Structure formats: C-alpha cells, structure tokens
Amino acid sequence: MEPEEVAAATVEAATRLEEYFFAHALKAFGQASEGVHVGVQRQTVYDERGNGV
Questions:
Q1: For residues 46, 7, 20 and 26, what is the CA-based torsion angle, rounded to 10 degrees?
Q2: CB-CB contact of 13 with 19 (8 Å)
Q3: How buried is residue 19: exposed, middle or buried, by Cβ count under 10 Å (0-12/13-18/19+)?
Q4: Over the stretch 38-51, which tens digit does the pLDDT of each residue have?
Q5: What 3-state class would DSSP assign to 36?
C-alpha cells in the first residue's frame, strides 16, 4: 500500500506549529524550575525534536 501524498502547505503548517509549541515548551520548562532539572528538561525537548546531544 502506497502512503498518501501530503500537500506542501500541510507540511509547512505542521512545521510552524512545531516551532510554536517547541518555543513555548522551552519557556515553560525554564519557568517551571530553575534548578538541576532544567538541563534534563531541555534535553528531553531537544531529543523529542530530533536534535539530541
């Protein structure tokens, strides 16, 4: 079974949403606890995004 094609506009919209939520997640993690856990929280977000160490 062939995968369905996805319109370029759909991919662009998904990318913009990902950037929006990623930026807000970093801000939320930063405000949640400025302690030893911030590095772990940020690394988790980076790993989820595919930009690990």
A1: -10
A2: no
A3: exposed
A4: 666 666 666 666 65
A5: coil
